[in-house]
UniProtKB/TrEMBL annotation:
The keyword Transmembrane applies. NCBIfam families: HEQRo_perm_3TM. This is Putative glutamine transport system permease protein GlnP. The chain crosses the membrane at residues 12-29, 125-145, 157-180, 192-212, 289-311. SUPFAM superfamilies: MetI-like. It holds the Pfam family BPD_transp_1.
């Protein structure tokens, strides 16, 4: 009860600040001469696609039978065959006794399909997942190389990390697609995933290096004294302990990679960002679409953050 009494003033202050911010945003929006079209947004998540049903040859409609929401259209073709087409009852385009010619549409079959926003989100997720897996492998190898006692190996890793971390991701994507992709005839998806993986790998390498070096040297010495080889000691003793320490920054890097993946839209990969731009081009609903796109990124990263918190709690319990 005492905790609640101490906490409520700060909760009230937070509520006041949020209300003031909301009022400020609302006032700014009202000053803009803009017609909001939120009613147009849902169709870009899911929509009803109509697939036309066409006759394969000339013929005559023998019967149109409707049962519930489905209509069965029986057509006598000129070759003597009788064919039945099933379409949605509300989309029938012919009448009984009507003559048809090859390619004529008798009706439509409607199905729910993913809109461009959800399709773009799926593309964003699988590109980010593929780049994260590759980035983790690259970063683990580069991180181990950086702590190697071999000068050449450690310097190669250091050069890779410095080049990648010292140049913008957008420039790296352009180089991967227009230069490396052209030389090796790479698909745009491969070039985009490769650029993201190399970018993430450089940051993962530093995280892995710091995590390994944070483990007391006595752990490695004890493992070697028990007869373990260096690879055994690293995989069975050092890395499991380092993993618990590097999980928060590592997960943060991969969550950031989801947002960074929006840059692959510049090489014509239809991810969530490019889908939003294409919708805006055809609808001019600029504010609505960008707000929805931002909310979709926020929802995905928030869910992943909660999952990471869950893993951290589980690992803490295992200690």
């Amino acid at each position: 009860m005492k905790v609640a009494q101490k906490l409520w003033p700060w909760q009230l202050l937070l509520a006041v600040i949020l209300i003031v911010m909301a009022a400020g945003i609302y006032g700014s929006v009202k000053r803009i001469d803009y017609e909001w079209r939120w009613y147009r947004v849902p169709q870009y998540f899911l929509y009803k696609a109509e697939d036309p049903i066409k006759v394969p040859d000339d013929g005559t409609v023998e019967e149109v039978a409707t049962a519930g929401g489905t209509a069965k259209i029986t057509v006598n073709l000129v070759d003597g065959n009788r064919q039945v087409f099933e379409v949605d009852a509300t989309t029938v385009r012919v009448d009984q006794g009507e003559e048809l010619f090859i390619g004529d549409t008798v009706g439509y079959v409607t199905t729910w399909s993913l809109g461009p926003l959800l399709t773009g989100l799926v593309t964003t997720l699988w590109i980010s997942a593929a780049a994260s897996v590759l980035g983790l492998a690259i970063g683990l190898i580069a991180g181990l190389m950086k702590i190697s006692r071999n000068y050449t190996v450690s310097m190669l890793a250091a050069i890779y990390v410095e080049i990648i971390r010292g140049t913008p991701l957008l420039v790296q994507i352009f180089i991967a697609y227009f230069f490396i992709g052209t030389v090796f005839n790479l698909d745009r998806n491969v070039a985009g995933i490769g650029a993201l993986a190399l970018f993430a790998g450089a940051y993962v390498a530093e995280i892995v290096r710091a995590g390994i070096q944070s483990i007391p040297k006595g752990q490695m010495e004890a493992a070697r004294s028990l007869g373990m080889s260096l690879p055994q000691a690293m995989t069975e003793i050092i890395l499991p302990q380092a993993l618990k320490r590097i999980l928060p920054p590592l997960s943060g890097q991969f969550i950031s990679l989801i947002k960074d993946s929006s840059l692959v839209s510049v090489i014509a990969i239809t991810d969530l960002t490019k889908s939003g731009r294409e919708i805006i081009t055809s609808t001019f609903a600029t504010f609505e679409i960008w707000l929805v796109v931002a909310a979709m990124y926020l929802i995905v990263t928030s869910l992943l953050s909660q999952f990471v918190f869950y893993l951290e709690r589980r690992l803490a319990i295992s200690d």
